[in-house]
């Protein structure tokens, strides 16, 4: 076998072995369903195809060993991420109360701050877009939203 090739894995899932003799001929060895071992000489084209497949498979297995198996992504953690757990009654009640408090606090803001804050956070508009709608500058919108955020923090303390 060429010295350039990485070491090939031997396991129960690889049903064949390929190699090259000293004189450059290629061979294939495998066991059939009855356990009888067969040894064949194969052409360069067949060897190249099997070699490319085996080395690609080896490359993938090495990537799995290096990256996936060493990461924190275990089957359990992936399951936890994939499955959306329904909220408990307590969590739902707390979220509803927090939303009510937030809406009450927003309603206590001055009209201009409330309108700009809602356009920015709930409608997804940029400061520039809000400024164009209201006929004011970017800086005026930014200052208004920052002031509204500060006021909300004080109200929600």
Write structural notes for this entry.
GO terms for molecular function: DNA binding; sigma factor activity. Pfam families: Sigma70_r4_2 (PF08281). This is DNA-directed RNA polymerase specialized sigma subunit, sigma24 homolog. By secondary structure, this protein is mostly helical. It has 2 domains: 3-68, no CATH class; 87-156, Arc Repressor Mutant, subunit A (Orthogonal Bundle). The protein has helices at 44-68, 75-82, 89-107, 111-121, 127-134, 138-156, and strands at 16-20, 26-31, 37-42. The chain has a 3-stranded antiparallel beta sheet with strand order 1-2-3. Strand 2 and strand 3 form a beta hairpin. Helix 3 (89-107) crosses helix 6 (138-156). The termini are far apart.
